[in-house]
Structures are given as structure tokens and as C-alpha cells.
């Protein structure tokens, strides 16, 4: 598809397939960044063949109240206001489409949104725990659409298999809560499983936490 687009643009700007006809832009984490963090976009110039061409790309913010471009040659941008801002790259007179940058409220912490201990009876029809609920906090409010990763450590260590329902990585809901359940799948019955639930910022740094739960297994 990229080559087809390049060919179409080449017809409009000329027949020299070596000239730059398009800019390919990539924003980390789909353009999500927390306020007061920095975003590092990537861009490359493409010629009429769809090949990358060495070129000096210049970056600019179309919404400087939300995003400030700190370095126009690298595109490093500082998120200073919450909302949806736009970045644009150019080479000479050729400009990219505006790229949306979603500046999110900064997370303060994560905490348990329910009991941190549960007991599962293995002989029950389905050895599934109650919900292990985590809330992502931004000030006094819950933060929506933030990833929370659940992980399990089995005690004593054995060839036991557990899994998270519906899965081990969830997005917080409109109230800032993500909840998973733990299921014993196979192997010896463990005494307990310690579950950690951690949230990370779009730049990869950890949010204070993680939250720990203990799930006990009984016959």
C-alpha cells in the first residue's frame, strides 16, 4: 500500500522517483504521553520508490498550549497541557499530516479496589478466585484507559499452572479500575499464589505500587 501511495504522489509531483514525496511518522505508544513527560517521535522521508531517504526533518507543534517541541531537529516534545495536541513534520515544503498526541493526566499511584486476600476451593466446579481489583489514581480521581499487568508467583514452587481471566493485561475502566480473576488450571495444588498488579506510564516508567494480592487454595 505504501508503494502504491508513493507512486500516486509521484505522479502528482513529477517523474523523478528519487525525490522525496512522503513522510512516514511513528509516535511511541500511539501518541499517548502523560503531562510533564516528553514524547520522542520518529520520522523518515520516502522517495517515489518507497525507499527511505536521508533528509533533515523539522518538527513543529500545532497546539503549543498542549505540546512544546523542545528540539525541532529530533522532534522531542514536552507535554504541558492535558488534551489532544498535534505534531507535524516537514522536509522543505513537504509536510506530514498532523499527528495526534494524547496528553493524559499523570498517575499518582495504584491501590487495591477490594479485598487483597481470597480463598479458592479446588474441589469446586471451577477453581476461580473472586475479582482482584486495582484502581489507578490521578489526584482524587480514577484514571481510565490505563494498562494494568497482573503476574502470579506460586508458593511452594511447583509445576502448577494458573491463568488470569479474562487475561493478564487489562485497561482500567471509566472509574480507573481493572479487575482480573485467577484460575488454577493444572498441576499440584499450591498453598497460595501471590498476585502483583502493576501499572506503567506511557514512557515505560512504573507507577508507585505494585498492588499485591494473596490467593489461598484449599482442597
Would you mind describing this structure in some detail?
- The protein has one helix and 21 strands.
- It is mainly beta.
- Mean pLDDT is 90; it is low at 1-13.
- Strand 4 (42-47) and strand 5 form a beta hairpin.
- Strands 2, 6, 9, 10 and 11 form a five-stranded mixed beta sheet that branches.
- The termini are far apart.
- It has one helix spanning 2-13, and strands at 20-26, 32-34, 38-39, 42-47, 52-53, 58-61, 67-69, 77-79, 83-91, 94-95, 99-104, 109-112, 117-121, 132-138, 141-142, 147-155, 161-165, 169-171, 177-186, 192-199, 211-218.
- It folds into two domains: 2-104, Sandwich (Immunoglobulin-like); 109-218, Immunoglobulin-like, CATH 2.60.40.10.
Number of domains: 2
Q: What structural class is derived from the secondary structure elements?
A: mainly beta
Cα radius of gyration in angstroms: 24 Å
Helix share, percent: under 10%
Which residues form runs of ≥5 with pLDDT under 50? 1-13
In CATH, the topology of the largest domain is named Immunoglobulin-like
- The number of distinct β-strands equals 21
Distance between the termini: 57 Å
Name the beta content range: over 45%
If helices are DSSP runs of H or I spanning 4 or more residues, what is the number of helices? Answer: 1
CATH arch. level architecture of the largest domain:
Sandwich
Query: Average pLDDT, to the nearest integer?
Result: 90
CATH H-level superfamily of the largest domain: Immunoglobulins
Written as H for each helix and E for each strand, in order along the chain, the element string is HEEEEEEEEEEEEEEEEEEEEE
Q: According to CATH, what is the class of the largest domain? A: Mainly Beta
Query: Globular, elongated, flat, extended or rod-shaped: what is the shape?
Result: elongated
Please describe the biggest sheet, giving its number of strands, its sense, and whether it closes into a barrel: 5 strands, mixed
Amino acid at each position: 500500500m505504501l508503494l502504491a501511495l508513493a507512486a500516486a504522489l509521484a505522479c502528482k509531483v513529477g517523474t523523478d522517483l528519487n525525490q522525496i514525496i512522503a513522510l512516514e511518522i511513528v509516535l511511541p505508544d500511539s501518541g499517548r504521553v502523560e503531562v510533564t513527560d516528553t514524547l520522542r517521535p520518529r520520522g523518515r522521508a520516502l522517495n517515489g520508490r518507497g525507499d527511505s531517504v536521508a533528509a533533515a526533518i523539522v518538527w513543529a507543534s500545532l497546539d503549543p498550549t498542549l505540546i512544546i517541541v523542545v528540539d525541532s531537529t529530533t522532534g522531542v516534545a514536552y507535554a504541558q497541557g492535558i488534551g489532544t495536541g498535534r505534531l507535524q513534520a516537514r522536509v522543505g515544503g513537504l509536510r506530514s499530516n498532523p499527528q495526534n498526541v494524547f496528553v493524559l493526566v499523570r498517575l499518582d499511584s495504584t491501590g487495591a479496589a477490594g479485598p487483597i486476600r481470597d480463598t479458592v476451593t479446588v474441589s469446586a466446579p471451577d477453581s476461580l478466585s473472586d475479582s482482584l481489583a486495582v484502581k489507578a489514581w490521578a489526584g482524587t480521581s480514577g484514571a481510565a484507559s490505563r494498562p494494568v499487568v497482573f503476574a502470579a508467583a506460586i508458593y511452594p514452587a511447583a509445576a502448577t499452572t494458573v491463568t488470569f481471566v479474562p487475561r493478564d493485561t487489562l485497561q482500567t475502566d471509566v472509574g480507573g479500575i481493572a479487575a482480573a480473576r485467577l484460575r488454577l488450571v493444572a498441576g499440584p495444588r499450591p498453598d497460595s499464589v501471590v498476585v502483583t498488579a502493576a501499572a506503567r506510564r506511557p514512557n515505560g516508567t512504573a507507577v508507585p505500587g505494585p498492588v499485591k494480592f494473596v490467593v489461598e487454595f484449599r482442597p
